[in-house]
Specification:
Blueprint (H helix, E strand, L loop, with lengths): L2 H11 L6 E3 L4 E6 L4 E9 L2 E10 L5 H11 L6 E4 L5 E9 L5 H24 L4
Antiparallel strand pairs: 1-2, 2-3, 3-4, 4-6, 5-6
Length: 130
């Protein structure tokens, strides 16, 4: 069984369905609005799996916002908030090794995203208008 098939199996076991599946690129997109999961891209790029979700578009550059995002990162269990190359899109991103990936590890990363959104969602949304 390929790493991609293993990851898909874990996601199905966690109760996710795939809104997008691209076997050639070895990626899927999952959603679970109740858990703060919206268009979470899970991309197998041997030797790692990348989990990435757009959080919001930042309308203005602000060192205050960037500072606060870095402070939020300190409390995240897995993954981190980061910016795209242009610095205007806030993302959640995590990477895991595929070689010995297990269900608990993948579930922990996804749960970390859910927790990050539950704990920081309101404050993150306040950044949109700043």
């Amino acid at each position: 069984m390929s790493n991609f098939e293993t990851v898909k199996g874990y996601l199905l076991e966690m109760g996710f369905s795939f809104d997008v599946e691209n076997s050639e690129e070895e990626l899927v997109v999952v959603n679970d609005p109740d858990r703060g999961i919206k268009d979470l891209v899970i991309d197998c790029e041997d030797p790692i799996v990348i989990l990435e979700q757009v959080i919001l578009v930042l309308e203005k550059d602000s060192s205050e916002i960037y500072k606060r995002i870095l402070q939020m990162n300190r409390s995240l269990v897995h993954g981190a908030f980061c910016l795209n190359e242009e610095g205007n899109i806030l993302l959640f991103r995590d990477t895991l090794q595929l070689t010995n990936l297990d269900l608990n590890e993948l579930e922990g990363s996804i749960d970390a995203l859910s927790l990050a959104m539950a704990e920081n969602g309101s404050e993150l949304l306040s950044f949109v208008g700043k």
